[in-house]
Structure formats: C-alpha cells, structure tokens
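User: Last request for today: this protein with magnesium ion, please.
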Amino acid sequence: MALFEARGVHKRFGHQVVLENIDLSFESGRLSGIMGPNGAGKTTCFNVLTGRYKPDRGRVLFDGEDITGLSPNAIACRGIARSFQTISLFDEYSALENVLIALPEVRERGFNMIEPLSGDGADADRAAAVLARVGLAGRERRRAGDLAYGERRALEIGVALAAAPRLLFLDEPTSGLGVEATARLSEMVRELKHDYSIVVIEHDMQFLFGLADAISVIHWGQVIARGTPDELRENKWVQRSNLGRP
Amino acid sequence: MAAVPTVASPWVPRGMALLLAVMATLPLWVASIGLYQYLGVEIAIWMIYGLGFNLLLGYSGLPSFGHGAFFGVGAYAFGLFQAWAFESLLLGMALAAVAAFVAGAVVGCFLSHRRGIYFALMTIAFGQVFWFVAIKWHTVTGGEDGLLNIPRPALELGAASVPLNSNVALFYFVLFVLAVVAVALWRLVHSPFGKVLQAIRQNEERARFVGYNVWLFKWAVFALSAAIAGLAGSLFSMAQQSAYPDVMSLHASGVIVMMTLIGGGFVSFWGPVIGVAVYFLARDVLGAVTETWLLWFGLVFVLAVLFRPEGIAGAWQEYVGSVPSAGRRNRGTEAPASHIER
Ligand SMILES: Nc1ncnc2c1ncn2[C@@H]1O[C@H](COP(=O)(O)OP(=O)(O)OP(=O)(O)O)[C@@H](O)[C@H]1O
Ligand SMILES: [Mg+2]
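Assistant: Here's the final one, the structure of the complex with magnesium ion:
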C-alpha cells in the first residue's frame, strides 16, 4: 500500500475549478515528482494534501488513515512536513532557532513555560545537525532574515526536515536559484532521498528527471500523465510542452 | 555537550536585579525630589500590568485594546471577596487572578482565530461590554461609583502579620509581587512556550505547518495575560481602596498600549517597565507644569509610532550599538526588530 494517497480530490475557488478529480499516490522510500506549467494547480494540490484547504470532494489518506480536512498542525504532527514555494521562515529568529522550534522534541514541550528553549542542549545539537545537513553549518547564529537567498532556500528545507518527517513535501525548492545553486540543491535532495520519502514540485524537468522515481504531470488541475522519467520522456504532451527548457 | 552553545538565560538577569534594587530604595528619596510615596505603588502595579500586557502585544503580536477589562475584573473580584467573604490578602489576589483568567479564557475563545485589525476590534468590543456591565450592574459593582472602602488586608506570614496600611508597606509588597512576576515572565519568554508565541507573531502560518496549534497558544497567552492584569488590578483596588469602572474604559485600556509602545515593548522585555515609569513621571512632572500634559505625551506617542516603533528601549539598544544593523531595517508594527529578549 502506498504511504500517501489522494483519491478524487476536487478543489474550487469561487467558480474556478483548480483541482479536478486528482488521484495521486506516493510510495514510501521514493522521491515522487509533480510537474506542470505555471498556474496548473500544483501548489494548491500541496495545500489540500497538507491541510491548508479542505478539498470540496475526495479523500486524503496517510499510512491508511483518513486525514482529509484535518488542520495543518494535526497533519504535521502525524509526520508530514512541507516547505513553501514562497520562502516562509521565522525571520527574526536565528537559523538555529528556526530549526529548533520545528523539532518534534521541542513541540512536545510547547507548553513548558519554565525551562529554556534548548533544554539540556541535546535539541540544539539536533538542530545544528539539521542545519549541517542542508549546508548551513556555521550559519547557526545568523538571523534568518539576514541570510542570502540561497541560504534561505536551504533553511526553508531545514525547517521542514527538522520534523524528521515520514513524508516530506517540497514546493519548488529551486525557485529563484541560479544554475549552480540549483545543481547544489539537486545534490542535497539526492542525499535526502536515502533517508526520507519525498514529494517535490518542480516545473524544471531536468531537475525532476534526474531525481524522481515517479512523476505526475498536472495540467489544468488534472493529472494528465504519470510514470517513470523514462516513460514520460516518451510522452507526447511532455515532448510538446516547453517544460524544463530554460 | 551542545555543539552550539545556546544562551542560558539566568533566573534573575542583571538588569532586573538593578531595577528592583533601585526601586527598593525609592521610598528613601522619592519625597526629596518633590514626589510622593503613593506614586511608587502605582508605578509598580502598572509595571506588573505592562509586563503581562506585553506578553500579548510585543511577544505574540496580538494587539489588545480592551485589556483594562481584566484589570477591572481583578479589582472588582478582590473588592467583592473582601466584602462578601472575609478579609484575606493572598486569597483575594488569587481569586482576582483566577477571575481575570476565566474572563480572559472566555473572551479568548472568540478572539483566538483572529489576528491584526480584527483581533484589535474584537478586544475593543469586549472591553466595552465589560465596562458597560461594570457601570450598569449596580447591585454588584456599585455602578459608576464603584466599590468603596476596600480594605488593605494585612500580609499574614505564619505567626507574624504585616500591616499594609501605609503606602510604604504596600509599596514593598507590590514590589515583591513585581519581582515574582518579572522573574516568572522572564523564564516564560525564553521557554518553549514563549518562543512559540514569538514564532507565531513572526509567521503564524509556518508555526501551524510545523505542528503548533496556533489557536490554543493564542488562547492560552490571552488568558494568562488577562490573569496578570487581574493580579495587578487586585493590587490597584488595594492601593485606591476602591474599584471603579474607569479602569475598564477604552481610554484606560489605551494607556497601557501607549506605555508599552513608548517604552519599546516590541524590542525589549523591559519596554513596558520603561514606558510605565516614563508615563507616570510625565504625568506628575509635566502635569505640574501644564494641564495639557497628556496632549504632549500623546504627541510624543504619535511621533514614536511614526518614527520609532521600537520605543525607548529600541533607541537605547541602538545607542549602545547592541542592535545588529539589520535589526533596524524592518520598521513598523508588523516587523518588530530582532532581539526581544533584551
Ligand atoms: N487561495 C486562492 N484563491 C483563489 N484562487 C487561487 C488560490 N490559490 C490558488 N488559486 C488559483 O489556482 C490556480 C492554481 O494555482 P497554483 O498556485 O496551485 O498553481 P501552481 O501550479 O503552483 O503554479 P506555479 O508554478 O506558478 O507555482 C491559479 O489560477 C491561482 O490563481
Ligand atoms: Mg506553485
């Protein structure tokens, strides 16, 4: 059974149908890709799957449990973490604090009003390890708002990773990055693949084709194609589209 | 051992020890500068109120313009307890805090899913409801006159009984409560709870997506802040020996906002403490010179909001160069500068 499944998901904003009968399934231990042109509904799809919006119809299942319509925090507590296409950090906090606050160990102590945030220091070590993993060693004390754009992109993933998630959703992690930074990020995601089940949205085909085990193509709010990168390379629609051309 | 040393916050930071020490000497010299003992009582009470209020405004980014309601609930609860039950200092104070906590918890249920302007408007509306009830519910609250002849019960310490009738004695008691509240809140703002509140202020959505029940945190801090206001209110009813609706008015609720902002509640734990001292000194010093002192004070407030939302504490941090240059970049109430724990 798939780790995560969406069945017949519909989402409308007013009269605009943004998601129409979406079926998706993501396997444990795999990197799944979601691809599609601008405005196709990819981010909306993540938003529905991670609890920001309730779907108008359809069901979302995680590890066999129905999580349709649960709040984002309830879904996060079940082990699903996500990053955002538009960077979304705690800008006044240091890089370390950004990760600390996202650790499940800290979350469990969320209503502790007496002890210091980092507890006995073990949590600070964990947070520092996460930062190292996303290439931010040495940047622990920098305010998130003062980091360079590429570093903020990395921290965006770090905050999601902090949860030690059973499933990690990344929404266009390379958005706004140059060629080199994209290559570095691609390496990082390749490393993460060993330890995490990941779903990545990208509209850069090269990026996904190099990394993903399976890809779903969303267009006009529907899944119009799915398969391995090799299968999709043969797909007429994918060939015709401009996806991934610089 | 932690690879990355995280700053351990001491139980009593140096600034706090200094503040309390200076305040403890106040009865010795306050008369010689032309002021009076009661002023110290008032200042210490409002510092408690301000520290609790800033938990909402500065730390959680939740602007409450109706906090006087909870201050008032505490004042009335203390007075009613002494009148209806029996005279007891600590029980009366505990009841005041609990009553305000309950009131805050109920109001918080209606507020906690809101933010920004909607949150502010709702607090005004609820504040007015409390104020109106206080005026109209004659049989309990005494209407516009309020509750009169509230006693100052003695502090019972086992065998000893310390009378608090003199303003100096009451001042030292209030100062002790201030010390307890300041230490507790200092711990709180550095605890996971306090850090989550600040995370919510910075980015509510992300806080939700890393797994925090934002509603519950807002609700809890609202009720907690109300309880502290109630505690301060109980001391105030003792100081004034009465409880009256005026402390619940929109004007009174606005004053605590003003104090907190002028002092620098957005950037410093000490903001409200500074703001309260400045407000009362302005009232008594400027007030002696001109009847329109509040106009001038209000003008300073407007200028502060326009040009220095970081307040006096922010200006000080900048002066001693302790604010990293980037901390100054984001002006405006939405983006408080960096290190609020200073
Ligand atoms: N909250 C909302 N209210 C109304 N319309 C929305 C909302 N969110 C998204 N939309 C609309 O839904 C459509 C799909 O948007 P979405 O952000 O999901 O696209 P996307 O595939 O992520 O595109 P991009 O590659 O540009 O990120 C767009 O037309 C967008 O305007
Ligand atoms: Mg998108």
